[in-house]
Amino acid sequence: MRQQINIGVLKPHPKNNEFFDDLDGEEFECLKNSIRDEKIYTDILVSPDMTIISGHQRVRAAKELGMTLVPIKIDDDLQDEKSKLRALISNNFGRRKNNPAKDRKALATYVELKGYKHGEMENGRKKTCQNGTSTLDEIAKELNMSKRNLQRALRIERNLTDSMKELLDTGEITKTFASDTIASLTEEQQEELISKLDVTKKYTQKQIEKYIEEINNESEKSDDVEKLSTLKIENEKLEKENKILESQKKISDELAAQYKSQSDEYMEVKKKLIHMGLEPDDDYNTFQATVQITELNNELSELLQNRLAPIKYQLDMFAVKNNKILKRTF
Description:
17% of the residues are buried. Helix 2 (25-38) crosses helix 3 and helix 10 runs antiparallel to helix 11. 63% of the residues lie in helices and 5% in strands. The protein starts with a strand and ends with a helix. By secondary structure, the protein is mainly α. The chain is elongated, with a radius of gyration of 51 Å. Residues 119-133 have low confidence and may be disordered. The chain has helices spanning 16-19, 25-38, 56-64, 81-92, 100-113, 136-142, 147-159, 162-169, 175-180, 187-196, 205-275, 283-307, 314-322, 324-329, and strands at 2-6, 44-46, 52-54, 69-74.
């Protein structure tokens, strides 16, 4: 819906300058002259809350020219921050010269907003997005660029260190070399490569590749040392475990010997009881035999102490003891 509105109610998108440079110098003056002479013929695209989506430079120029009314077009679909940010990037990307670093950041952010964390289909499946886009080819087409260039930009943005990005943006290395070669290095390897380079000099791709080869060789040696150290630790661990197992085996052998000894002793006792006619088939019979033997012992003690030596014979025994004739007769 097109309408004229007071320029004072329009709000710049809070992330516009994060992704896009402002016009300055001669370019900005040309825009101002064009608006002064021909007014604003292309509507300012805004969201329902009057956030500017496309037209930040036109609004800047109009304010400097003292204009109070500008034509706007409201997109009623832009109700949340994500949809406004997607529209901001898609409507402004590639329309004019921009900082390369901001371009890469804009691309990475846009791809993520479309449902891709790493520039590829999530889990290998097509993921439904709010506006129906679901492939990198379609995203590249929306932004009027090739899929290859989009993929290169994503690799650079996500895999290069800030220092390496600076070398790219100052022309020390090419985009192709940065995305196809440098992006495969780890952060540590990239920092090591930068430490080997004299940033005041220009290097050919072959020269840089030579440094990368040296770094990779050093990395392989480092990996070998690390593997050797890991194997040493594992070997020490195995030796400790082996000692524990040997100690446990010794204890087990001792227990086994003790058990055998007790078993032999039990069998010997069992044989003796069998010879006594008790035939102990189990622990219960052995217990019964012990009880009976104890009772027999008690009965013998009582016989010896009471029945065979009753008190009634004690006086007679005394008389016999003191009489020589009876003693001899007894």
